Amino acid sequence: MENNNGYKDEIFTKRVRAGKRTYFFDVKSTKSEKDFYITITESKRVGDDEYEKHKIFLYKEDFDKFREALAETVEHVQSNLLTQIDSEKG
């Protein structure tokens, strides 16, 4: 079933709730349905029924580079910055 923008509905979706923000990781097919991509959406409530959304489109040729950069960044924060903050508290 196609939605209004001509793309099929999501092939896969994962929602992550994190405080006031919700992150959506969606796999979608292209119009030709022969390829796919990932969208990462941050949704933040800014009013009673109002949300602010930011979206990143990630194409399959960039998956490995993105994953490696994200893993390296998280590792750096966990190994260097969080341990530094913990030692300053203690």
Structural features, described:
With 90 residues, the protein is an alpha+beta fold. It has one domain (12-89): Nuclear Transport Factor 2, Chain: A, CATH 3.10.450.700. Helices cover 30% and strands 39% of the residues. The protein has one helix spanning 63-89, and strands spanning 12-18, 21-29, 36-45, 51-59. Strands 1-2-3-4 form a 4-stranded antiparallel beta sheet, with no helix packed on it. A hairpin with a 5-residue loop joins β3 (36-45) and β4. The protein is flat, with a radius of gyration of 17 Å. The model has no long low-confidence stretch (mean pLDDT 87).
Please outline the helices and strands:
Layout: E1 12-18, E2 21-29, E3 36-45, E4 51-59, H1 63-89
Antiparallel strand pairs: 1-2, 2-3, 3-4
Number of helices: 1
- Calculate Rg over CA atoms: 17 Å
State the separation between the terminal residues, measured CA to CA.
56 Å
* Helical amount: 25-40%
Mean pLDDT: 87
Q: What overall geometry do the principal axes of the alpha carbons give? A: flat
**Could you give the count of β-strands?**
4
CATH class: Alpha Beta
Number of domains: 1
Which structural class is indicated by helix and strand composition?
A: alpha+beta
- Biggest sheet, spatial arrangement of strands: 1-2-3-4
Spell the H/E element sequence.
EEEEH
